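Final report, Chapter 2: Outcomes

The project's central promise was a pipeline that accepts a single protein chain and returns its three-dimensional structure in a standardized token representation, suitable for archiving and comparison. That pipeline is now operational. To close this chapter, we reproduce one record exactly as it appears in the project archive, with the input sequence first and the structure output second.
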Amino acid sequence: MAEIETAVRHDLPFVAVVANDNAWGIVVSTQRARYEEKGVLASRFGDIRFDKVAEALGARGLRVNDPKELRRAVEEGFSSGTPTIIDVPISVLGPADIV
């Protein structure tokens, strides 16, 4: 998060897309593979809205719920000339989905 504030302060434009699974996704999938669902510990978050976090830090924040909207959001972010964070909610993937 400090990087976002720094980019805002120094007027450094960029676009970051956050694949937001509300978890340490790779950790969850590893714990689940080894210990089943009961072994998934301390690796899930609440609903963190990274678009809102970006706005609180002075950047531009967008949320994309439909994959068809992603291209437009990225183009909008690049054309804005400001740091832009695009929050994209996804499901936690299993190990086979990551490969």
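Archive annotation: Residues 95-99 have pLDDT under 50 and may be disordered.
This record, like all others produced under the grant, will remain available to the consortium after the project formally closes.
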